[in-house]
Each structure stands twice: as C-alpha cells, then as structure tokens.
Amino acid sequence: MTPQLEVRTQRLRARLHAEREALRARWVKGPWTLGLFEFISFGIKQAWACLFGGAMLALLLATHFFYPEGAALSRYDFLVLAALAIQAAMLLTGLETWEEARVILVFHITGTIMELFKTSAGSWIYPEDSLLRIGAVPLFSGFMYAAVGSYLARVWRIFEFRFDRFPPLCLQGLLAAAIYVNFFAHHWTVDIRLGLFAATALIYLRTMVWFRPDRVHRPMPLLVGFFLVAVFIWFAENLGTFARAWAYPGQENGWEMVSLSKLGSWYLLMIISFVLVATVHRGGGGKNSENHETPRREPG
For residues 201 and 95, which has the higher predicted lDDT (pLDDT)? Predict the structure, then answer.
C-alpha cells in the first residue's frame, strides 16, 4: 500500500468508527438496545470478513445469469482474472495483510491439489471449458478454498479473537494433517472421518473463543463456531452448484441440493485453514500473536 493510500484508508476507518460511535450513543439506551446493536454490529463485521468470499459468490451468480454465451474469454477464465483483481485490490488497500495472503496462498495450493485428485476420482466435475486450468480443474477453483482462508484470517483480526484453553499447535497440526490425508486415503482404505470428528471434539471441547462484536468480548465454544461457519459454507456451496460453477454426481442434468455429508467435509476442511491462520498469529505474523489467552472483558 502506498503512503497516500494508507493515509486515506486510515481516515476512512476513523470516519466510519466515529459514525458508528455516534449511532451507538443515539440508539443504545439499555440492555435490550445494546443486545440489538451488538447483533447488528456482529452481522456487519461478519459480512466484512466475508468480503472476498462474498465477491466470488456474487461473481459466480452474476456470470451464470449474464455472462455472454460464446464469448472469446470463457466464463471460468474470467473468474480467474476477476479473483486475481479482487485479491490484488484487497492487498493494495490494506483490507488483507501480506501475512494473511501467505496463509491464503497455502490453502489455495492445498485445495487445488485436492481438486486435481477429487476430479480424477469423479467426486465432482467442472462442466464448462476453459484455458486457464490444470487437467480437469479450472484455476478459479483454488480461489474458492482461498475464500475460506481469507474469511478465517479476516474474522480473526476483525473480531480480535482471544481464546481460553487453546490447544497446543502441534496437536492441532497433527489433526489437520490427518484430515488432509484422509480426504485422499479414504478412496483406497478405511474412511476415518468419524474418528476425526471425535478427535476434533476432544481437542477443542474445552476451548472458548472470545470475539468482540462491539466494545466487550463475548464468549462462544469454538466447536459451535466451527459448526456455524461450516453451515454457511454449505449454503454457499449450494449457491455455487446452482450457478453451475461445478457439479456433484446427480447434478449433471439439473440442480439439486448439495448432500448434507458435504457439511461434514467442509467442517473438517475448515479446521485445516483454522490451524494455518492460528500458526500465523501464534508464530509472530499476526497482530494477536503475542498472546492467545489475554483478558477478554473490557469495561462496559
């Protein structure tokens, strides 16, 4: 980000913060209005954290309905170029840090590798032609995994996450590695998915995440947070298949709802992204890296 752009961005943030505080002073008069204000603030912050994923989903739907048939540039290739433009804009404007971008890139690569294997195994297909692709996998698909990584990196920063009883990163890393290997290995050997769900519950059962929707940090069991995010990803995947960006078996001749089993798959895959983001914050690359377990409450 250039110094001039950084100054403009800081001014815009300061103005938005001032307007938010003015609204708070005007409308918050007691516990009920405070709860409503926090709920609305929570929704706005979540939408802001979903900026990249929301933009990609909007592009999938818009190109499904309006992209010209027979265009010289295929729809999938347009999505690749648009995703690159969005990512560059977020970095240049400071909406995403370079540390977060590196995590997202790793998740992008791991997701693309899995795509290559899963499409060859017939788990899903990409029904349209494109030039920018590796085998049967158009390059835009990696950005769908990157959208999950982007969300987790941004939501961590925007809500100023703190944790109680945060599990050792080495243990989380082993879980993430086992999850990733099982996505491949279950095609040849026993699917240990149920065991991975059990391991996830054991590792994170006592972990609480404290997030800041307004002035005060609020607690939530981390497992509940994982599940809620997975549900929203499952809804997004239904929109993606509706837009014919990809198709699962049974969707070749018309759209139908994505199987609920994919909810579990995204739950597990999201943990890989969570561990990658946690590694950045724990390892000194993020603003919250100095201490996971800091005081959560602030004077009300």
Answer: 201
pLDDT at 5: 63
Angle between helical axes of 261-282 and 98-120 (0-180°, round to 10): 150
**Residue 285 pLDDT > 60:** no
% the chain with pLDDT above 70: 91
What value does the mean pLDDT of the chain take?
A: 87
pTM of structure: 0.85
